[in-house]
Amino acid sequence: MFNESINKCISTKKKILGYFLIAFLIALTDFFVYSDGGSQSIFSHVMYFPILLAALIGEMKLSFMTALIGGITLGPLMYRDVSTQTSQEPREWVFRLLIFVIIAIVFGFLVQQIKQYEMKEMDQFFFNDAIGLANANQLKVDLSKRIEMKEPFSLIAFQISNMDHINRYVDYRVGEKSLKKVIQMFLDFENLELVYFICSNEFAVILPKRNVKDTYELALKFLQRLIEPISINGFLIEIIMKAGIVHCPSHSCHPDELFRKMELALDEAHDSLEPYIYDEETERKNKEKYEIRLSLHDAIPNEQLFLVYQPKVSLKEKKIIGVEALLRWKHPKKGFINPEKFIAIAENVGLINEITKWVIQNTIQQLTLWQKEGILVNLAINFSPKDMKNSNLVNFLKQSVERYKINSQWIELEITERGIIKNMDFVKTLLNDARSCGFTISMDDFGTGYNSLLNLIQLPIDYIKIDKLFIDQIKDDEDPIELKNIIQMAHRLGIQVIAEGVENRNQLEWLKENECDYIQGYYFSEPLLPNDLVKFIKNFPINLG
């Protein structure tokens, strides 16, 4: 409100200044013409400038009036020859007056057309004609006004998340009508004028004087109304809707920040039937993921990645028979980054294959060094689900063992159940190929995926690794039947069992009693650096009872 008054005052002052400038230019032109000897002076053409200026700062009416005044002051009021005080012929000054008026009309018309075009462009900048609503630019302007009023308000963004499917499989015109229909349904549901078109599948609403709780309940009720399909042009259209909520002043008091956080809240809604309220902690985590993603590109060339190895102990032989290579990342500024975080990001951005190649090369080099020292252990290398989408990495593994002259029987490929669900036939062929070359295969996190038993039957699996989730069920007063059944089932199929995440003596004794084959976990050792692992192996065995 205050800013509007200031702007209006400045605009009025500019207009008054323009009027004075026009009058000054007319008087100055008359002075030069008179001083130069009369109306025949070339300075009479300077009168075009106040006429053009009048067209620019005013309407055609002002330009016309300036032309008349200029024509008269240079006409009957100006001598043709000042030295002889000879007056002009009427036809002379009338002709000049007509020229001025024509110029004023033509230029005034052109300026008027330009201004109308600019106004139309300005309207389009703030308004969407197709939907019939103000757009995101107007929303930001209105947010600024609301913030200046210092009254709390909520902002909701609604998005039709399946709009692409509607456009692709039905018709894009139906998609546009779907958005219009949903907006109209909201207006019928809640009588508000502050509704804004954001993009082809999104609109936003300002709710004055609403707290977060009331806004959430309103958005939730509206989303529930859209569970049933709506009818558009004879088509029953399923609308998958999500909503994100921000509040002023709780989340921000800046229009751009509110808009940005509204979009972040919308992104986090994930097509659920519940609106998502902006959360600072979620944004912090997303920002951290983004920073990790950027840094990950430099992790390999800058030698920030390294490997640790966790021993696997045979309960029957009472010795260390293998190790699992585990990737670690020490960032120069952030320190150690959780592998679960950066591996998931590497999978999403397409860097996981390069990282797995790096792991293969470095683990096989390390295995070569250990074997020269007389340390003979199997080495398990983790393959991501993304690594199993083609044969490149298995081929790279074959080439690496040939290059370093390592017997492939010492290498174990460790895969997860989630890596084979969507690509069973290809993975089966890939693993059979790897097994025919002498590599062994283990399935990690067994029991946490779908169709675990079917996977064991169909795939060439040598070991299963029972997830820590099942190991934690071993307690003094309980006998985990499900875990016992998994071990027995695996043995009947000729598959050996590795228990990972073993942390106490009670778990160890139960696993021994139920004939688990191998143990891996902090009860024996945390993951170790290569030199520390050699010392640990040389000081083994630990008392296994």
Total number of beta strands: 18
Spatial separation of the terminal alpha carbons: 82 Å
Low-confidence runs (pLDDT<50, min 5 residues)?
none
Class by helix and strand content? alpha/beta
Q: What is the overall silhouette? A: elongated
Mean pLDDT, to the nearest integer, reads 87
Assign a percent range to the helix content. 40-55%
Output the strand order for the largest sheet: 10-11-13-14-15-16-17-18
Proportion of residues in extended strands: 15-25%
Q: Kindly provide the radius of gyration, computed on alpha-carbon positions and rounded to a whole number of angstroms.
A: 40 Å
Number of helices: 19
Describe the sheet with the most strands: 8 strands, mixed, barrel
Write structural notes for this entry.
The chain has 545 residues and is of the alpha/beta class. Helix content is 51%, strand content 18%. The chain has 19 helices and 18 strands. It has helices at residues 2-35, 48-57, 60-73, 90-126, 136-148, 163-169, 172-189, 212-225, 255-268, 280-299, 339-349, 352-372, 392-403, 424-436, 452-458, 468-471, 481-492, 505-513, 530-539, and strands at 127-128, 133-135, 153-160, 195-199, 202-208, 230-232, 235-237, 241-248, 276-277, 305-314, 319-331, 335-337, 378-382, 411-416, 440-446, 463-466, 496-500, 518-520. The strands form three sheets. Strands 10-11-13-14-15-16-17-18 form an eight-stranded mixed barrel, surrounded by four helices. It has a seven-stranded mixed beta sheet with strand order 1-2-4-5-3-8-9, sandwiched between helices. A two-stranded antiparallel sheet has the order 6-7. Helix 5 (136-148) packs across helix 9 (255-268) and helix 12 (352-372) runs parallel beside helix 13 (392-403). The relative contact order is 0.05.
